Structure formats: C-alpha cells, structure tokens
Amino acid sequence: MQGKGFFLWVEAKIIPPLAKAARWKPAGAVQKGILFALPVLAIGTVLFFFLVPESAVITKAGHTKLLITLAKLLIAFRAALTLMGLAASITIAYRLAQVEKMSPLFYSLASFIAVFLSFPLNIRQEFNILNIGGAGKTILFMAELSSSCLFVSIILSITVVMLGKLFKNLRELNESGIIKICSNLLSPVIIILILVFLQQQGIDLHHFVFILVKPVMYAGDTLPLGLMIVLLITFLWMAGIHGPAVVFPLVTPIYLTLLAENAKVVAEGSHSVPPHIITTPFFSIIFAGGAGSTLILAIMMLFAKSKKMRNLGKVSFIPGFFNINEMMMFGIPIVMNPVIWLPFIAAPVICCILTYTAMYFNIIARPYFYVPGIGMLPSPVIAFLSTGGDWRAPVMALINIAVSGFIYYPFFKSIDQKYLEEEKLKHENR
User: Fold this and answer.
1) In total, how many domains does the chain have?
2) How far from 66 is each of 18, 58, 63, 70, 369, CA to CA, in Å?
3) Rounded Cα gap, residues 99 and 397, in angstroms
4) What separation, in Å, do the N-terminal and C-terminal C-alpha atoms of the chain show?
5) Shared-domain flag, residues 314 and 402
6) Which among 193, 214, 235 is the end of a domain?
7) If we measure between CA atoms, which residue out of 402, 363, 359, 406 comes closest to residue 379?
C-alpha cells in the first residue's frame, strides 16, 4: 500500500509538470533536433582527426606519438562538437517550424545562417574545411567554440522560428505573395541585423552566452543535480514513460560541453585533472544495462527457478549488455510494479554516489572523450574508453554492477518465487 501511495504521489506531483514541459513545442524541438544532430559528432570527430595538423599539438602534448594522437583526437572531438552545433541549428529549427506549421526548409536555412554569422569574424574568414590545406587552422578555431556553440544554436534556432511565428498573422491577413515573402524574411533579417550590430560593437555572442549558461552547467556537475537526473529518469520509467528518451536529449548540450572542457585540459598536456565529473559518459558508467542499472538483474534471471523469469532472462541478457532493457521494463514488469521500484531507484542512486565519490577523490579518472555509438557498448568498455584507458574505470563499473546485484537480489527472489508458485498452481489445475 505504501508503494502504491508513493506511485500516486509521483503520478500527481512529479509526472504532470514533466509532461507539461515535454509538451512545450520548443523543448520537443530541442529534444528531437539534438538526437538527429548527434551523428554529426561521431562523423566530424573521425573526419577532423585526419585534418588536425601535428604541428598544432606537439608543443603542448610533447613529442610522444601516443600523446600527439590523443591530443589530435580530443581537438577533433571539440571541433566536431561545434559542427554538431551547426547541424543542431538546422534540425531544431526544422522540427520547430514543422510543429508550428511553418516552412521547415526556410527556417532551418535561416537558423543555420544566423548561427554561422554568430561566429567571431576571424573564424568565419578561416572557414575553409573543404580546402584540405587550410582546414587544420579552421578546426583549431572551431575547437575553441565547443563550449558555447550548442547553446547558441538552441537559442538562435528557437528565436528565429518563434519570431517568425509572431509575423504569421500578417500573412493570414493578406495572402498576397509579396506579403508572404516579406513576413517570412522579417524574422531572419532582424536576427542577422542584431548579430551584425553585436559584432560591430565588439560583443562576442558565444562568450556572452557561455557566461550566462555557465552557472547552470556547473550546477549540473554537482552530486545533487546528478542524483536528480537519475531519479527523474527512474520516476518516468516507473510511470511507463521512456526516461532516457525524454531527459538525455535535453541535458546533452550541458554534459557534452562539460566533456569538451575536460578534453581541452587533457589535450593541452598540462597534466591537470579534468575539472568536471558528471559528463555524458558518467551516466553510462552508472546505468549498466540501461535505466535502473538492470544488467545484473538480467544475469540473475538466467538462473531463476520460474520458467517465466528464465525465458525473460534469455531474451533480455544480450540486449542488456548493450544497455537496452525495454523487455525487462514491460516483461517483469518494472513499469507500474511497486514491488521492484525500491531497487530500481536505489541501485542507480548508490552507483551514482559511489562513482562520483571515486572521481571526486581521483581514485579513477574523469571522462574526457565520448562519441555517439559507444553509449551502446557495455558499461565497463565505455568507462575504459571515455577515461582514456584508465583500467580503474571499468573496475568501478564492475563494482557498480556487483552493488546493484546485492540490492536487486532479495526483490528478484521474491518475484521469482511468486511466478514459480503461479506456475505450479497452473500446472496442478490442468
């Protein structure tokens, strides 16, 4: 009864504001737009790696081939994050204009132009990636914008479309072609004029935006905010809403930016500890098997006494290694099932605290590298790759899995026994 009461409280107090926020059109556009732009980060990192000149990193990273390669990779990652910001300006504006029943192609192009014009003049002048000979200098400039480009893209893409919406009534009053074209052009023209004015005044929009969002970003790198995100994801799943699909696209700009700052420190070869703990790979390390840290539960189900749990373990085990656990969510089930909620919440919360503590005291390295795709790898592998090969990081991931096992075991046994008794009763009634 207490579990049901808790769920009713979550359903009444937590879910409605989250659902309302998710229905806000710009938030939905950012969510979808970031997801569609993420592949650019992976492609850009690989492409830029071969274009970063070694001469740009030798003095900072030393002359060791391994250090030079690592520095080039991290610079490529940061430059690709800026490229992802440019891509996001297109995908976010396209999605928002589509939802607002406006011209998606026009506003995505206008948004892209606005974001490009927001770049400092020296970067725009050097923007010649297609010229292989001069591409290295462009990439180095782009890497310097990695901390702000995503946020600028989100702000400008939403502003361009929503400003266009304000002029939509003018079109509805007069359907003539000239009025329609003029009303469409008003939004991007106003934004472009503002950007030109700011640059003439010597105001760097990227730096200004970074200063504004810096407190929010750094707050996201605290244990309380990390725990809040973990709880938010688990609460949403308990109500049957795909928590990671709702939460991660919205916080990805923050945690990729913090990761880029870590990458910058490592690439400079200063031997300083990366400043940020909670970044994108951090959640992959604590969520072994997916939300709720359910990989160990899938393993335990392979040895269950009840036929239902064993069969569910067989189909959940391999996907669980790649952090896919939807079959367990609806098969056990975890969704709408108060019996399993306590370990489903407690396991990732404790793993979050343990991992944060280990990184805070530098027992394990802090993540500084990530590209889309490695998030589908097993948690220990992600830990190893994202920390630059620190062997202690995958050990921490394995400890998290073991701790989750201790938490889940008594609840697993209870559910397994329940299904076993139901199967025996069903067999006796035949």
Assistant:
1) 2
2) 46, 11, 9, 6, 15
3) 41
4) 33
5) yes
6) 214
7) 402
3-state secondary structure of 100: coil
Angstrom CA distances, 1 to 7, 129, 302, 412, stand at 10, 62, 30, 19
What pTM was computed for the model? 0.80
- Same domain for 284 and 422, yes or no, is yes
User: Could you tell me if 334 and 344 are in contact, meaning their C-beta atoms sit under 8 angstroms apart?
Assistant: yes
* C-alpha dist (Å) from residue 267 to 58, 141, 250, 272: 10, 15, 27, 10
**What is the amino acid identity at position 411?**
F
pLDDT in tens, 322-379: 888 888 888 788 877 778 888 999 999 999 999 999 999 999 999 998 877 777 888 9
Contact 262, 367 (CB under 8 A): yes
* Long-range contacts of 191-194, Cβ-Cβ distance < 8 Å, separation of 24 or more: 191/110, 191/114, 191/156, 191/159, 191/160, 191/163, 192/113, 192/114, 192/117
Written as six digits, the tokens of 177 are 């072609």
Chosen domain end from 214, 239, 261: 214
Within 235-389, strands assigned E span none
Q: Is residue 202 helix, strand or coil?
A: coil
Angle at 290 between CA 288 and CA 293, to 5 degrees: 50
Strands annotated E in 210-249: none
Whole-angstrom Cα distance, residue 206 to residue 100? 27
Q: Flag whether 222 is in a domain.
A: no
180 plus 295 within the same structural domain: no
In 103-148, where does DSSP find H-type helix? 104-118, 121-125, 132-144
Domain that holds residue 88: 28-214
Residue 204: pLDDT above 70?
yes
Helix axes 25-49, 149-166, angle to 10 degrees: 140
Does any domain span residue 164? yes
